[in-house]
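Training component of the fellowship. As part of building independent skills, the fellow (R.M.) carried out the full modelling exercise for a liganded target. The chosen ligand was adenosine-5'-triphosphate. The inputs are recorded below so that the supervisory panel can assess the work.
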Amino acid sequence: MTGQLYVRGLSLREPVPEDSYLAALPVVRRLAEGEIAFHRPVTFFVGENGVGKSTLIEALAVALGFNPEGGTRNFNFATENSHSELYRHLRVSRGAVKPRDGFFLRAESFYNVASNIDQLDREPGFGPPIVDSYGGVSLHAQSHGESFLALAEHRFGGHGLYILDEPEAALSPMRLMRLMVRMDELVGQASQFIVSTHAPMLMAFPGAEVYEISERGIQAVNYRDTEHWQITRRFLENPEKMLGYLMDE
Ligand SMILES: Nc1ncnc2c1ncn2[C@@H]1O[C@H](COP(=O)(O)OP(=O)(O)OP(=O)(O)O)[C@@H](O)[C@H]1O
Ligand SMILES: [Mg+2]
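Fellow's submitted model of the complex:
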């Protein structure tokens, strides 16, 4: 794994106000204790719903100048101003080199990004326009998964910082593996990924650093030790047994 660290760590430049819901989030409580450092070109944040994964990576994206709804740094459409104030309190330790490319993906608002794809294609980028790669068809004319993979395969250009919130949401298992292959190519071209995910398959990306967030804070773990992996493995081994057990309760 080569890659490049454009973001080396996250910390708080000032405390988050105690009366804000943010102060109670496990991820913010952990930030208050010191920096979360990035050591690998691919970092995953995993953990239960609501621990603050999206809040954290969205704050990182906004602090770096990305549109909170998703997109490149030049994207400035706004549909709903729902991002948190955490970015104002966040200190981002940057690497010596600046990324040449970048994208912030929020699964929830990819629709809006697709709506602005004409704008995306007008921006300076590395690859050919995305619409070209699909015979000039707008991303809206493709399925959610197809359009997301088109973005990663045709528009992510390398030497980039890619911040992705649950990229698996759109993808079949086969396409998720295609995304992982594409990520590997991009890492080989000096890219960094910071990703929140619930997908055990994605966490197995070779050499990635997996941070599991829970009430106990944030732990760097082997992906096989995550709750997601363990539960999925047990389920797949014997779905009838697990469901029978749960449903009999
Ligand atoms: N404006 C708000 N006021 C109060 N609480 C909020 C607000 N916005 C978000 N939250 C809470 O912040 C918590 C963290 O949300 P976040 O979306 O970061 O979780 P997550 O780890 O990404 O979860 P998931 O796995 O479901 O995507 C949630 O419990 C949510 O209810
Ligand atoms: Mg989330």
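The panel noted the following from the submitted structure. Residues 7-222 form a domain with the Rossmann fold fold (CATH 3.40.50). The first strand starts at residue 7 and ends at 12.
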